[in-house]
Amino acid sequence: MSKDLLYKDAANIYKALMHPARLEIIEILRNGEECVCHITAILGYRQAYISQQLSVLRDAGIVDVRREGWNIYYQIAIPQILEVIDIVKRISGFGEKQINLNPINCVCPKCRTVVEKKSNTRRISMNDISKEQTKNWHLLPICSKEAENLDIVFTCDGAASVGQVGNQVAIELTNAGGQARMCCTTAVGAGSEAHVNIGKNARRVIVINGCANRCASKIMEQHDIKIDHEFTIATMDVQKIPTLNFDEADVRRISAEIAETAGLKKP
Fold it and tell me: What is the model's pTM?
């Protein structure tokens, strides 16, 4: 290899390191392999932005990548790069920055993460939860990458009978154990980028409105989320009345009807 090519390769590595976010990513990977979702949750940037920075590091040969199911994992490919970074940190007087490697808003499978129990503020490791405890869990989508293989269900949860039926139907479809997963319509309405991206990257989007107001569908439309199947509970022989009560028979009937129409696993 010529001297010019050697210097070019070295320059590419230097260029890849010349970005604060990429240095942060390397600091995270210093502790071992992590998935994209976990890195995103730690740093708080958009997932697309993190993927872009990881791509630069990968092209420079600094990180390696592997896939496992829906998840993409990265690790340091050149361990010596950490020595270079440590030298620069000492020269620049950089203090030891504490990075929280266990963000509470990341529950990706296989991530080293923590979750917060709703009943109290005690945090527990996902690794501490037994398989027996989780065998009936249906993990809801927490990133757009995971949503690519899922049918995401957005539903009305309005304060009326039809809203309550719609929400319960979404729960039944999720608990059926197929590819359907309900997601937070309110978060999309509030402009949560993570939830909007889940909708935009979903394999299919299924919207269950409570009534003719089409609130859930309008929220999707406002955020340019394509709707593949749309249902309205009030047109499915359920009367809209101002009550939180609902008929379980309606839930079973409508769940089966929506599952058949949308090609979902029946509850």
Answer: 0.55
